[in-house]
Amino acid sequence: xxxxxxxxxxxxKKYFGFNQFKSGQEETxxxxxxxxxxxxxxxxxxxxxxxxxxxxxxxQSKVLVISPLISLMQDQVEQIKYQKLGGAIALxxxxxxxxxxxxxxxxxxxxxxxxxxxxxxxxxxxxxxKNAHIGLMVVDEAHCIAQWGPDFRPDYLxxxxxxxxxxxxxxxxxxxxxxxxxxxxxxxxxxxENNSNTIRYSVNRPNIFLATEILxxxxxKNRRLLELVQQLKMPGLIYFSSKKVANEITDLLDRxxxxxxxxxxADLSIEDRFSIQHQFIENKLDVVCATSAFGMxxxxxxxxxxxxxxxPADLESYVQEIGRxxxxxxxxxxxxLYCPGDEMIQQQIQLNTLPxxxxxxxxxxxxxIMSLTNDDSIEILNSFFKMGVSAEKLxxxxxxxxxxxxxxxxxxxxxxxTKECKRNFILNYFEEPDFIEHNRxxxxxxxxxxxxxxxxxxxxxxxxxxxxxxxxxxxxxxxNLQE
Length: 483
Ligand code: ADP
Ligand code: MG
Fold this sequence. Notes:
Distance between the termini: 71 Å
Radius of gyration: 24 Å
Pfam families: DEAD (PF00270), Helicase_C (PF00271), RecQ_Zn_bind (PF16124)
Bound molecules: adenosine-5'-diphosphate, magnesium ion
Number of strands: 13
Shape: globular
Protein name: ATP-dependent DNA helicase RecQ
Mean pLDDT: 88
Keywords: ATP-binding, DNA-binding, Helicase, Hydrolase, Nucleotide-binding
Strand order of the largest sheet: 3-4-2-5-6-1-7
GO biological process, one term: DNA recombination
Strand content: 5-15%
Domain Helicase C-terminal: 224-371
């Protein structure tokens, strides 16, 4: 091992207490420390944040992190505070006038500064940041720059200009998924230098078996779900598109199995969410029935299965969600259960999250109401308006967006229906050149798979817990008998 690698490992241990880098972290750090702007395309949960945090600590420099959503920024700030890495602040429209004043007057205290592109339009604030000399500019969730991507944020288009106004600081763009076309779009928009680096890891996870099953109707699906969870090695995650159904299936598992299950979604309090995450990590829960709210920052290595009860919105989200399985490298499985009509749930979500003509015109006339809602899609609409985009253009834009979302959903259906290798289908979608030789540990392309062969079958009754509360009468009888 060379000296640089030793130094990096030493610092990793010193600041984070970790003994090893995860895939891509070391390469990303070496690229940055060598002075090259870098685009790191690494799967969710690989610790992308650590790349800029460690860079900041090693070089003692200020780090400006651009993030698309206030909730993401706040999570990161909390984490940095928790790890006692240094001063961190999220510059958002949530700060009161006084708070903002305090922050700007004590800017030296903050090493990690989180900001939305929108807030950087404030000239005074921007000048404070500029004069503070940014050692590293980070663009988190960089795929939001891609105009036809699923998470496009219009104000991300201002980042190239911001970067130039800051004097082209060393820049790290982070994303979990980007096709080669999106990669080029990110580099162009951010005005990356010609000698910038891309660190990309394949989306392929060889230890995750890919299975899909088509069921006739919802009852069949529930029956199959119960059958599967009785057979599968624990722990596991089940994903839902609906909070209500996540609750219902948790109840069903409670009634019909001995598994310890909990529902996890945005309606829970922060305390409850934290508690469920902890119980899951400490193996006090077998199954979490989650919506996509679950996952960010979750670092459980031995998840054996990720089951989808509902369709994911697109293959990007699917790959991210199933990627939570098998982080320890052991054999795991992703199973997508589909029954005809399931796509309507996603279409309904699209209708709810993409503002229509009437809504756009209404908000255009009543901009004040928008700042009162916490809705992500309204936050996006609001940033369009602030950029001066007309209601007419937005109607067109969101209509286009709907077409693209629908196409992405059709790809998920094609993934389910394909008779070819599913792994190659996904690699093909992400335009990865290397095709995999299909074998029996790969996917259910012929519709069949065998949990026993995959060593994913649960040893019967070993981990199951008898719930005393369900057997009071038996206990009573026993007790009386003994008396
Ligand atoms: P991403 O942004 O890539 O989805 P995060 O930056 O949120 O991932 O990190 C996910 C988790 O991985 C965090 O809990 C983090 O502490 C942990 N982590 C990061 N780097 C390492 C490492 N080298 N060893 C162990 N855990 C790590
Ligand atoms: Mg992240």
